[in-house]
Design a protein that fits this description.
Elements lengths: L1 H13 L4 E3 L23 E3 L11 E3 L3 E3 L12 E3 L20 E3 L20 E3 L20 E3 L20 E3 L20 E3 L8 E3 L6 E3 L16 E4 L2 E4 L6 E2 L9 H13 L16 H8 L3 E2 L6 E2 L2 E8 L6 H4 L6 E6 L2 H6 L5
Length: 355
């Protein structure tokens, strides 16, 4: 098998192949032959499905563990990398050097995290990391400005970074079969995002109202659960209870006519320095902690009524899905509600999902 592999790689190098298929070869290590000498810099698509890879780069054992430095990054023209159906536990940071990469498939592995360097893949259009062990996604993922299709089904996600809502090209997001209890307030605010699938997240009871006019999948959501089982702020309306994102500090009601001082200060700062927010150093760290600078750069969300940014407090309003025209599409297979997150009592009172 080793000699056959070397021959295949050698032919690809000599003939300057753009496509290389190494599927179903029972590989346990990433073949370093791919990274030696010249010739494979012309490679655009690498397929390595159905192997037994455990790491993306080979580790050499002697007295110490030595990582082959920047190995995978030498395939500078690679556009498609398929490492599905292996046993990968680690994706090396050098993955971020594949600046031409457009399609990355890592489904059916054992990954528990992705390196932040994934955010350096500016040309990435498709990312499939379904059926792994991921608990969350790297916040820098929102820097993948070309990303259109993101599939994270059947992982262990309990939290989705709100920065994900900033992906300008994202058209389809699938997060079915995870452990989500809430979604970012701004999910669906982008006009590009048209398809969202969150089926079988049993603790998920609320969908941001921005998703109302999108194609959504939410079967198997909203199963009964005691509020005490989940340590999150919750909002109840009649028999319905919805969990709110962990970053939300307070819940406003129609009787609260005065905003908290911190919220007023953050909104004032935001409007004053909005044009400088691309640079988190626009204010001295002494005048404002970096955590608050980052919050100014990426608010909790924007009012579903007037688009005012919100930083610490939200005014939620529930619209049960079964009471909307969309009820027939789901035929009673879900008990979720749409949630309008508003910035004030006035917006809360005037928001109407169906208008």
């Amino acid at each position: 098998m080793a000699s056959e592999l070397c021959k295949t790689i050698s032919v690809a190098r000599l003939e300057k192949h753009k496509n290389l298929f190494l599927n179903y070869r029972n590989l346990h290590h990433f073949p370093l032959e791919l990274l030696k000498d010249e010739g494979l810099q012309y490679l655009e698509r690498l397929y390595m499905k159905r192997n037994s890879l455990t790491t993306l780069v080979q580790y050499l054992h002697s007295n110490n563990i030595v990582v082959v430095p920047e190995a995978i990054g030498s395939l500078v023209k690679l556009q498609c990398l398929d490492l599905s159906d292996n046993a990968l536990e680690i994706v090396c940071p050098e993955i971020g050097r594949l600046r031409a990469l457009r399609h990355l498939r890592l489904a059916n592995n054992q990954l528990q995290f992705l390196p932040p360097e994934v955010g350096d893949l500016k040309e990435l259009q498709t990312l499939d990391i379904s059926t792994n062990r991921l608990l969350t996604l790297p916040e820098r993922l929102h820097m993948c400005l070309s990303l259109q299709y993101l599939t994270v089904d059947r992982n262990r996600l309990w939290y989705v970074p709100r920065h994900l809502c900033q992906l300008p090209s994202l058209n389809e997001l699938s997060m079915a079969g995870n452990r989500l209890a809430f979604l970012p307030l701004d999910l669906g605010r982008s006009r590009e995002l048209q398809y969202v699938y969150v089926d079988n997240n049993i603790n998920l009871k609320g969908l941001p109202s921005y998703l109302y006019n999108k194609v959504i999948g939410c079967s198997g959501c909203g199963a009964p659960i005691q509020v005490s089982e989940v340590k999150l702020l919750s909002f109840s309306s009649g028999p319905r209870t919805v969990f709110l994102p962990a970053e939300v500090k307070a819940i406003g009601t129609e009787h609260d006519h005065v905003l908290p001082l911190q919220e007023l200060a953050m909104r004032s700062l935001y409007h004053t320095y909005h044009s400088f927010l691309k640079d988190l150093n626009f204010l001295s760290p002494i005048s404002l902690p970096r955590s608050l600078l980052e919050l100014l750069h990426c608010p909790l969300g924007h009012c579903h009524r007037c688009s005012e940014p919100m930083f610490t407090i939200v005014y939620p309003k529930l619209f049960p899905l079964r009471e909307t025209p969309m009820a027939g599409l789901h035929q009673g297979r879900t008990t979720v509600s749409f949630v309008a997150y508003c910035c004030s009592t006035q917006c809360l009172q005037t928001f109407d999902l169906l208008s």
